[in-house]
Specification:
The structure is a homodimer.
Chain A: H1 2-5, H2 8-11, H3 17-44, H4 49-54, H5 58-66, E1 74-75, H6 78-89, H7 97-119, H8 131-154, H9 163-171, H10 179-205, H11 210-217, H12 220-235, H13 262-294, H14 300-316, E2 323-324, H15 326-334, H16 341-357, H17 366-378, H18 383-392, H19 394-409, H20 412-432, E3 436-441, E4 448-450, E5 462-467, H21 473-489, E6 495-499, H22 508-523, E7 527-531, H23 535-541, H24 546-549, E8 554-555, H25 558-565
Parallel strand pairs in A: 5-6, 6-7, 7-8
Antiparallel strand pairs in A: 1-2, 3-4, 3-5
Chain lengths: 570, 570
Amino acid sequence: MFKRYLPILAWLPHYNRRLGAADLLAGLIVTVMVIPQSLAYALLAGLPAVVGLYASILPAVLYALLGTSRTLAVGPVAIIALMTGAALSSVASPGSPEYLQAALVLSLLSGLILTVMGLLRLGFFTNFLSHPVIAGFLSASGILIAVSQAAHLLGVEASGYTAIALLGSLATRLGAVHWPTLALGAGTLIFLLLCRRYAKGMLRHLGLAETGAALLARSGPVLAVAATTALSWQLGLAELGVAVVGDIPGGLPPLTLPGVDISLWRALLVPALLISVVGFVESISMAQMLAARRRQRISPNQELIGLGGANLAAAFSAGMPVTGGLSRTVINDEAGAQTPMAGLFAALGIGLVTLAFTPLLQHLPIATLAATITVAVLTLVDIPMIRQTWRYSRADFSAMAVTILLTLVEGVEAGIISGVLLSMGLFLYRTSRPHSAIVGRIPGTEHFRSVTRHEVQTLSHVAFLRIDESLYFANARYLEDTVHAMVVRRPGLEHVVLICSAVNLIDASALESLDAINARLKESDVTLHLAEIKGPVMDRLKRSDFLDDLTGRVFLSTYAAWQALGNPPE
Amino acid sequence: MFKRYLPILAWLPHYNRRLGAADLLAGLIVTVMVIPQSLAYALLAGLPAVVGLYASILPAVLYALLGTSRTLAVGPVAIIALMTGAALSSVASPGSPEYLQAALVLSLLSGLILTVMGLLRLGFFTNFLSHPVIAGFLSASGILIAVSQAAHLLGVEASGYTAIALLGSLATRLGAVHWPTLALGAGTLIFLLLCRRYAKGMLRHLGLAETGAALLARSGPVLAVAATTALSWQLGLAELGVAVVGDIPGGLPPLTLPGVDISLWRALLVPALLISVVGFVESISMAQMLAARRRQRISPNQELIGLGGANLAAAFSAGMPVTGGLSRTVINDEAGAQTPMAGLFAALGIGLVTLAFTPLLQHLPIATLAATITVAVLTLVDIPMIRQTWRYSRADFSAMAVTILLTLVEGVEAGIISGVLLSMGLFLYRTSRPHSAIVGRIPGTEHFRSVTRHEVQTLSHVAFLRIDESLYFANARYLEDTVHAMVVRRPGLEHVVLICSAVNLIDASALESLDAINARLKESDVTLHLAEIKGPVMDRLKRSDFLDDLTGRVFLSTYAAWQALGNPPE
């Protein structure tokens, strides 16, 4: 019981010095590496940069206590920051105290939603986000975030939380480009892109081991931050009009209390729900990938509680909504983290930085952070996945395309909601017009396949109709029409055998339709038989009067029906 | 082409005197019989009684020209009147000119929605209303209408469009019961109930033929209207405070133009959509039942156009939303109608009544009409259906129960919308946790059934797993877990055969999961095979890389896999 809700009890008793050394090193590396992105994502959400640091401390501690992944690193991430910004700007203006307050309420709501979902074991809910919808949403968000950072790279102001609004806003301000900012931003961008493309190969070439090379190659953003901060400080870039992070209040995160303004809670409820679900999906996917590689187990419902705890911690420590982040987790993993203790060490490290070293970040140019974000989010744009989906299924692709389009044009909430609804609607639509096939016997076997695809034996007075779908309200009438049309086409028919090998459910509406089919066939002197009904479906049918009224029989297999109803030439 | 959109061209050329005589008689009978209910349903919708007559003239003519049912009778019906009243009272107060105007707009919107759905061939949309939801909605509406009529029977005022509001309103006014009205109403009610229960048997006993007896038994409301009108006139009941219909303007329906107030259109759009769908479902169910009995064909999409035309006609002739009505259609059918010409004759008859005989209705007590409605709608309450659904399926029953509850407590719109959403959600939930079964061979056959339900042969190094559901995003991860758990339980496993006889679809998300399963099994040196993949599913898989990566083979049948992978003791 305790172990279920406090996974830390599972590993802490076995903790030893070897694990401790590995975790300490990983914690140190993570501390240094995630500072730039923590600052950047806070700015992306329209919040002061320091909020990104605050949100990397206490939330990480809570996840370490409650989460089931050994190496997941929790903190601000790009998508969630984008969604946070979109949600907050609809209720307050960036920079105002209300905006900060709303960020706390959003974290609190997210935390509550995740925790309650976890306690009620509702993790399966996230299964309704299909892969194409997630991939489309991530791709579109990547583009959207990159567009939002363009203004910082160009040194102009731009507003809006949709790609259209941002581009429109940018277009009117192209004349005001601030050239020193652009030079710095573009330089950093090119450096980071080169790092990502070539650094690992070069480092390996120089003789570094695989993991070390990978890790060092990821330190590009840290180098860029250090170099441009030094440059900015030495040349006094701030005086030239280059935007910098500026004064960051030192000290540990303050204790904060989210307000209880009901109208604010109501306004943020849907965004909080979406942030929770999207954040959870991003986090659990990565946790499961890592766990599979290390042969560990993840409990989705306990993960909800872990992330819920992290967000509640954010709400009470001046933070913002958080989740398990792709890049911080990869860094943690490559740095050799063994247990959540690494996360605790990293939280401690960032806490120390926040306490004492924020003045170092004062001269850090915003354009550097924008370049860091841009390079990070471009990996979200997954063109091969889009192409592959198009090739495999037009229906899946259309859900993906709508998600991408609406995310860009209407924003993140509209995008993900319509993607989910459309993919559900398409599934329902597909099941409402089920495939069915008239089948015949493959000569010499007990196997039956479609008459249009295989060379099979048939009987003129018996129709074997295989229904390729569960029978439920949306397709009940369609089945009636299918059977009716078949009977009209074949005047010599005496028996209809419905093969139910693919029927996993017969609901009350479909039962009425079967009754109607049975009655109508009876009027035409055609007998209705069923074959290959599954156990659970049969159990249910026995609870109704249908089997008493059925004019024909229920056969265990199609072959049994074939033997009983025909005299097949053997 | 012409025949498709103007079904009248299919029967008019073959029209003859024999058909004409039958239709004329039916038209006359319908004229007399439907006048009480037409008046009553207009009042139920909060409209002047005469609107019910207007809505029985031109709409019926349009349906006769455009509809595909030979005997369906179109006009105001109880459910639609109730929904109309609920919709109109949310935008205007009953009795005001705006209320009448809104009724026209509602008819127009319904007409447009139905016509467009018909032209776009969207008739299948109505399949998403499951039988339990419809039955629950009709039962609850029956109760709701009966409660709404109680005020008229007691001679008090009551307001509201939910059962709760109406009962609350009634409770406060019980002291003001108008005894003469109650005596008249209760008397009529008892007379009508006795008619319904015993009249047909008595008439048969007196020697009347089956059809004649049935028809005469249905004339109870006409007798009640005639008798109470005469009584009311002779005794001057109106002066005693008994509410009567009062002056009805004579003359044919005036030409009306629905306004184009955009905010009104927007407010009435959802109600119009619901009225269209519910009206269509009620109408098509009956039309199909009658057509099946007479071996005629109904075209659902042309029916949409027919009902759309009828509602457009209502909008331009001072009417209200209409649909094919249960009781008027049964009367038409029993009166021997052969073609839609009977409907034209009835429209002509009601037109004549409206033109010249409305003064006769002046003294008709409202309580009589309320008794007529109450007796009519009590047949909507289908207790056996509710009990049967409970026995057959708890999921279907829960959708039904929610529909009933919300219809009574929150109103018709909330009831039907939540019923539809819940039944869809339940279906998605059920398919998200698919049933699967480990199967074995029934000795001596090529047939495989569940190891838990049948005595079967199994192989220790091969697992045959039958998946009983299409594989799509909502259950993709569930499948991964199922396979993973099975492999963990059986250490000696070398082969896993997924039997896909019930898999009608593998979407892009499920394809990724299969890829993941394949890769994970490969790491544990277990080979993944597929068996019994359906033709359309296989076509799609061939468009992906999955079959190239699959570690095992694709077998046509489970038996083929059994033969290839095992050495079954024959």
